[in-house]
Write a structure and sequence with these properties.
Chain lengths: ~100, ~160
Amino acid sequence: MAGSSTETDTEERTCTRTARPWNVIVHDDPVTLMTYVTNAFMEVFGYSRTKAHTLMMEVHTTGRSIVWTGDREYAELYVARLQARHLLTTLERVDD
Amino acid sequence: MELERTPAGDILLRDLHQVFVDILIMLPAVLESDDPRVRDRLLPRAYEDDEEEEEWRRIGAPELEHLFASRVRLIRKDLKTLAPEQGDVYRLDIPRIHENAWLSGLNAARHTLFILNELEPGDVERDPEDLKDPEKAMALLHIHLMGWMQELIMKAG
């Protein structure tokens, strides 16, 4: 039946859209203080100072860092919190 | 500029010289810039895909804009405490619960000055006196001094 098929397709698309993990990526910018970035990672994710500092240094030296990976809903929440602090933050679907 | 914690845990910025007073007074206006380049930086893309980005903007952008506006209101309210001390210096009281608003507001202001004055990434590492354009030099000085304020507030943790 066409109706059932469409519903199944929709369900599959929805599951695919939400089930695959997403990366939260922070990009380097020339203005934001390094200490501010470290503090932001500690506040937003609850990371230790050591882990937050390591991620901040990765952003600074390579231009970007994957700072969190997981469900899309949470990823969007983290992006919003980081963008609220004016960190350049994007979302990328994890590659297969 | 010096920072003290009050017994209640609030911040007291003291020994603020005129250059800091000038920066603080202009802060709300800087944060309310409607320049599209500033808006693009403060509300950047989250998604590469246009359709996903459009949905993100529809839901997320109004919330962020509301947050930024309420942050300016808090900063403007705190600036009413700016008062002269003995000599030519001033003091400013910042309630503990407003600290994050100030830290993020100062970060936004630094980005805004950077963009509006068309500074280059390498300029941020330079001494303002090394810039030939006096307006750029002044903007860079303000960016450095705002960064110093951020550092002081974060160290007072």
